[in-house]
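pls design
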C-alpha cells in the first residue's frame, strides 16, 4: 500500500512540474496576446478578434486547471478574467477594454507568483 501511495505522489509531483513548465509558456503566450489585444481598437482587424478569442480559450483552461494543482488565487483571477472576456466577446467587443487590460496584468502577475512559489 505504501508503495502505491509513493508512486501516486511521484506521478502527482511530475504532473505538477509539467504544469509549472506550461505556466511559463502560457505566461509568454498570454503576454503576446495581451499586447495584440490592446494595441488597436480596430475591430475590423481580424488579428484583434482572433487574439481575444484565443486568449479566452487559454484563460478558460487555466481557470479550470490551476485550482486542481493548488493554485487557488490563480484560479480565481483567471476565472474573473475569463468571465470579463466572455462578456466582452458576447457583446461584440463593446465592454470596457481598460478593465480587461487591468485584469490581464493581474493574471500575468498571478502566473508569475505561482511559478516562483514552487
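designed seq:
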Amino acid at each position: 500500500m505504501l508503495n502505491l501511495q509513493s508512486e501516486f505522489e511521484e506521478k502527482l509531483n511530475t504532473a505538477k512540474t509539467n504544469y509549472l513548465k506550461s505556466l511559463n509558456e502560457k505566461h509568454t503566450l498570454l503576454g503576446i496576446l495581451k499586447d495584440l489585444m490592446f494595441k488597436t481598437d480596430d475591430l475590423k482587424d481580424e488579428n484583434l478578434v482572433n487574439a481575444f478569442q484565443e486568449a479566452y480559450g487559454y484563460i478558460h483552461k487555466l481557470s479550470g486547471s490551476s485550482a486542481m494543482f493548488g493554485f487557488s488565487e490563480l484560479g480565481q483571477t483567471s476565472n474573473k478574467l475569463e468571465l470579463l472576456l466572455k462578456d466582452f466577446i458576447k457583446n461584440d467587443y463593446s465592454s470596457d477594454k481598460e478593465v480587461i487590460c487591468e485584469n490581464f496584468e493581474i493574471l500575468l502577475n498571478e502566473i508569475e507568483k505561482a511559478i516562483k512559489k514552487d
